[in-house]
Amino acid sequence: MERCWPEPPRHAIDTLYKLGAADRERFERAGYATLLDLPQDAPLTPIQRRQCEAARRNGLVVEPGLGEALEEFEPPLAYLDFETVALPIPVWEGCAPWEPVPVQISVHRQASGGRLVHREWLADGPGDPREALAAKLIEFTEGARTIVAYNASFERGRIRMLRERLPRLAKRLLSIEEKLRELLPVVRNHVYHPDFGGGFGLKSVAPALVPGIAYGKLAIAGGDDASRMLYELLLRGDGLAAGEKRRLRRDLLRYCRTDTEALARLHRALAPLAGN
User: Is a pLDDT exceeding 90 seen at residue 141?
Assistant: First the structure.
């Protein structure tokens, strides 16, 4: 294994952000094995240049516009994450095949003294969870001026689905949708750390910038695993032992809670970087 699939070098050329096949082949033919080998005049995007600069420094690179980008996040703040199931054959009325349906929600709120307050909800059983989840979403985000998601297009799409399904809650859900702000482009356009590894997923970015965030300790590795386990818990739960159901619920709640905690702490960590 070590001979056929050797460990790649740090800052391997393959980690260059959005590296196309043609550019990869051209760089490899020129003998560039790592980002450190690339010449200063290599044709790179701004994000790729920032990544190469971070590799050369072996440290963090922050662009001057970060502070201005953070100004749109007006407190009071709420940090939001959904987990979903996407079924090939829908079981709830009005759902399309493979449509991600939110069945779990986590929200962290800023409280006095910088403390974070957490609220969470996870469906129980095979019944349609959308109305109950929408009510919890409204309750958990009440009073927030800005609702922060990492990749807000996903949360925005789920909220629109709820609006279409639940017309009596549509006005309040629209208000939540209008308050959504996205942290991903703020990081992608202004910050790079070598530990990002060429990507900007929350599970790469947060541990690099926030001490103590450790996704590796969770029983659930990512959103696809969470979706599969939610399907097992909610739609096949009758075949599970009581202890197994409790374990699945515990692991799912911990996973979603970690996402919003990481999001909140990442946002908090960016302000000092902008000031510096």
Answer: yes
